[in-house]
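BUG-186 | component: ligand-complex export | severity: low

The export step for nickel (II) ion jobs runs without errors, but we want the raw record kept on the ticket for reference. Input record follows.
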Amino acid sequence: MILPIYLYGSQVLRAVAQEDDLSDREAVVKLIGDMVETMHHADGCGLAAPQVGVSKRILVVDGNDLTDRFPELKGFHREMVNPRFTFESEETSSYEEGCLSIPNIDAEISRPARIRVHYLNTDFEEVEEDFEGFAARMIQHEMDHLDGILFVDHASPIRRKMLSGKLMGITKGNVRTRYRVKTDKK
Ligand code: NI
């Protein structure tokens, strides 16, 4: 089921999401299936549960649409329940990011270049995995969503100032998207 995506300005995007208590695994698998469908429908490469209005620590990422720029992302797809970092490199890298909750906006964002993440997969097995390159960036972007942080928060002060009018517009719902969106007001 394709779900509406909450836009910048919505409260749920600013909340710290709760770990899933795993009491209803079927519901988690269903939510993840809906998130993957919603992400693909919107041509996105990642989605976190708060973006569909569910304040839980669940995320999906898929790099298959990015293989023109990042051939190494062919086949890259992860679904993570209750992820947490167990390592973040001091070395950083910088690249442009966007977000389905903040349409038509991008900004250059600096993040740790390499990470290690501990998470549960959709078979609820514990996994610890290293990521680098754009895959590491995608996961960090989605992990931020679980803590109520949006990529524009990391942008330079000058870039943030340049974007402030556009961001205000999105808050008011003044934005065109090819996918269904939702704000606190409508
Ligand atoms: Ni995002």
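Assignee comment: Attached the raw record above. The beta strands are 5-6, 46-48, 58-62, 77-88, 92-99, 102-112, 114-120, 126-132, 181-182.
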